[in-house]
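agent: user wants the structure for Aminoglycoside phosphotransferase family protein from Streptomyces drozdowiczii. delegating to structure tool.
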Amino acid sequence: MDEVEVVVAHSERTTLRVGDMFLKVDAQRERIAVEAEALALAPVPTPEVLWRKPSVLALAAVPGTALGRLGEPSPASPEAWAAAGAAIRTLHGAPLPPWPGRSADGLTAELERECDWLLAHEVLPAELVTRNRRIAEAALRPWEPVFVHGDLQITHVFTGGDDEVTGIIDWSEAARGDALFDLATLTLGHEERLGDLLAGYGTDVDTDIVRAWWSLRSLTAYRWLVQHGFDPGAPGCELDVLRAAS
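agent: tool returned. relaying tokens verbatim.
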């Protein structure tokens, strides 16, 4: 290996790839600690921890291919999505991690703060923000906490040629939380794959709440994405999710 690949880099954290090893460097040491403990507790395929320093976590690459990318059609089969649903169900059925997660009250305050910023800076049309905020509020109800991944983006779930989950990566946001938040995060921008995911998840799910989480996540993440060099207005990404909400 004669080069270092920068996988993602911004002011909070950087991930580098060197051969089959990933180095995660985080400005917040507690996120490294949470990720290491979550990897040890999660009852699903995860990367092997090679070593850990206070601000750095070295992980082995997982086999397989990610389910897809935000803004692009998923190339994964319905069976692969169903396998992902089954793995997430296993995670949600596991004992709770010992640290807490975000509360509905905290998320309510965050939603208000981020919507106010979007409106004050005229980043999005007022009607779009207002409509999606109304939809998002449905997610802010009491829920039974489960072991959630917390950042279950489509690029974080890998499956192999036999349509089995081979690895789930990036556990720094793992905590106690709402099961439907994980399902919504994975299907953000891929509404057409929600049925395949739920076929494997294997329990009744209120899809209106999943849709509420799509709006809530898109609204609350918008400022962060803009300020860290990402483009939520790219085709198929957060802006399109907000436009499609009804």
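agent: one observation worth passing along. Helices lie at 29-41, 78-92, 104-120, 126-136, 179-187, 194-201, 207-227, 238-244.
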